[in-house]
Amino acid sequence: MLGFSSKQLIGVGVFLFVIFIGVPLVIGATGRWDFFFTLTSVALLAIASAGVWLTFYIGRINIGQGAFALIGAYVSAILVVKAGWSFWISLPAAGLFAAVVAVLIGLPILRLRGVYFAMITLVLTQVVTLTALALPITNGAKGISNIPLPSGLSIFGIPLIPDFGSMENTKLAFYLTACVLMVVTYAALYRLVNSRLGHLCRSMQQNEELASSIGVNIAYIRIVIFAISSFFGGIGGAMFGSIAQSVYPSTFVVADSVNFMLNCFLGGLGYVFGPMLGTLVLYFGWDLLFEIGKYQMLVYSMILIAVIRFLPNGLLSVRFGKGDKK
Amino acid sequence: MSPLIQVKNVTKKYGGLTANNDISFDVSENEILSVIGPNGAGKSTLFKMISSFTPTTSGEVIYRGERISNLKPHIVARKGVVRTFQETTIFKSMTVRESVVVAQHLRAKASLAGYFWGSKTAQEDVSAFGKYADELLEFLGMSEISNEQASNLPQGSLRALGIAIGLATDPKVLLLDEPFAGMNHDETMNMVNLVRSVRDERGVTVMLVEHDMPAVMNISDRIVVLNFGEKIAEGTPSEIQNNEKVIEAYLGSVDDEIGM
Known about the structure:
The complex is a heterodimer.
Chain A: H1 6-30, H2 34-57, H3 65-81, H4 87-109, H5 114-134, E1 153-155, E2 158-161, H6 170-193, H7 196-206, H8 208-213, H9 218-244, H10 254-267, H11 274-288, H12 296-310, H13 316-320
Helix pairs in contact in A: 1-6, 2-6, 2-9, 2-10, 2-11, 3-4, 3-5, 3-9, 4-9, 7-9, 10-11
Chain B: E1 5-14, E2 17-27, E3 32-36, H1 43-50, E4 58-63, E5 66-67, H2 73-79, E6 81-83, H3 96-102, H4 112-117, H5 120-139, H6 155-168, E7 173-177, H7 185-202, E8 205-209, H8 213-219, E9 222-227, E10 230-235, H9 237-241, H10 244-251, H11 254-258
Parallel strand pairs in B: 3-8, 3-9, 6-7, 7-8
Antiparallel strand pairs in B: 1-2, 1-4, 4-5, 9-10
Helix pairs in contact in B: 3-5, 3-6
């Protein structure tokens, strides 16, 4: 079916079952409702990390995803609070706005390679933070708070999504929404990587000159990929803002951008689902180390260095062996 | 018959250094033309300008009546003028077959979105690419190594792979960058035959930059000789072999050698 092996289909089935049914059941039974928020965050951060992974796929180190997540969060918040849009319309709008910004920024900076591109993207997050502090529409340091919960969505009178405001348990609703978004993102990413566009990205990652000699418009593909990447960032950020019901200039900072990149490294750059696993492990790893107090950062960094040193192809390489299997 | 490619008064300056100075020559359809010259004569620069990998300082390159210099490389490739590189420029972590499949980019009929959704045209493309890749590798005698990772190939096969990638774009003109460098006599002869069959059986016009004189004399219909960025001679192999300027460029004049 669809070119998938039965083993892959079973894997996907088990995964979907676990996140949509298993996790809510376990949390319901144990009463650890706080885990919903943690897992929702993981799902949303995994969406943004998927974008970073995609820029890695064309051979660019992207440490600027925080900028696009912040842009997405603000665009959605402003559209909902000031323009009175439904959140569900503002979500794609936030992604598209981030993509447009990515095109404008990408045109000049995507010519750079290696560490030069990485350095510029590192600055982007700070630029967006400062811009948010300066612009009147973003309310400066006060940010935008009291964002209403997503309202219901119906098309032609058929209700598709219920009103979050009238729900008793918004945690579960947000968790399921984030999971749906994450699944759609990774399905799209998987499809993209295994279609012709993905093959062209691989050719560019390995040799841009040779790619252009076979007629690939490398400048165009770079822009398209960077826009898609930032779209994911914008979507993740917008959803995050809606859950927190507030956006501040410090909602996404440089450290978040670095984490998005680390998620990809940790999970494995050769695997589409690497960033998802990376986000989960990194997020929970950080939380678990909270117990050891002031040594948290020290131990955390040492573990990261060890993983990158001994598993340069990421955690998934343990399971799948070396090479770039998808 | 008007020439296929006309190089017209092409000049390239890097700051104060003149890499190519006022070079003009024509390439006819279906010929094998070699550009030779001592190291630093400006051969590679000339190739880069013909394939638009670098802009000309002045002058232009005309292909079928259209200017192809000072464009983007992928646009020139789309018009049918495709260059190959030296052996280190490959898709390292792809197999031979994958490289040849991806190199058929220009033959694609479906859009990138079509590939994403898996449209009918896209599926037809994918099977056509696979079929053509197998055909091409068979033609080049590379079927046995088609599933080999490119980074594991020996030098000779890498060059053949470079030519395979170039041919997969279905070019009208193929520019080969030192296809025989570092090869022993037998390997060179195989490659000479291969390049000839590319021209004879696929109707591809071939231009090559090369150092290996016996191979160049063997394969070329015509030869253009550069020295210090200037064209010093043009003609058939036998004309070039007896050209005094060429002999001087390669062996040095008596004065230069003895320093008198």
